[in-house]
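To the team - glutathione complex, inputs and output below.
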Amino acid sequence: MITLHALKFSRATRVLWLLNDLGQPCKRIDYDRTDAFRAPEALARIHPLGKSPVIEDGDRMVAESATILRYLAEKYDDTSHQPERGTAAFWRHEALLDYVEASFGEVVLAAVLPAFGGKDVPEAARAALEHHLSYIAGELGSGPFLCGDRLTLADIQMSYLLALLERFGFLKEFPRVAAYWQRLQEQPGYLAAVEAAGPMAPPD
Ligand SMILES: N[C@@H](CCC(=O)N[C@@H](CS)C(=O)NCC(=O)O)C(=O)O
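Output:
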């Protein structure tokens, strides 16, 4: 069975969501945030980066949530969370899956971290965020998900950053993205993950 190292209020929920969709149990080890809202030292004893999520599968350890999602889809022979291999849609999905952490993540954090600290959000950060939210609205097209009717790994990956953005009020002027985030929150795998591990966004 997979072991999931799950920091509270974190990207680990993405992993739990996929495992729920796949009907696969896991052994979850929870870690509380420090007073500074960081990962505790105990996570650094699991993986050198000291971040979550990390999974263990026997003697194999996998970090990075996008890689973990791909790993689990392959391990459990799941083809339902991505377009058919070799198609243009497959590679578009691959790009979106990587886009979330490789490009969107830093833009989100540049806006969310000052807001979390009660500081003004720099205008450049706000402008970059708006640019990316317009991009995502465009990629959604007529939806309901990034790849049409099929809920994919990229949607699951997107969830954490959208939770942060909504928490700090950044989705108000992006109704299509806000509606998409609302749809994601209605998915059974998401609901079960949050019920088990708690919310992704930090509390008020
Ligand atoms: N790119 C990594 C990011 C991992 C990451 O930054 N995780 C956060 C939780 S959402 C963390 O562990 N933060 C605690 C800290 O940096 O102290 C992924 O997608 O898994």
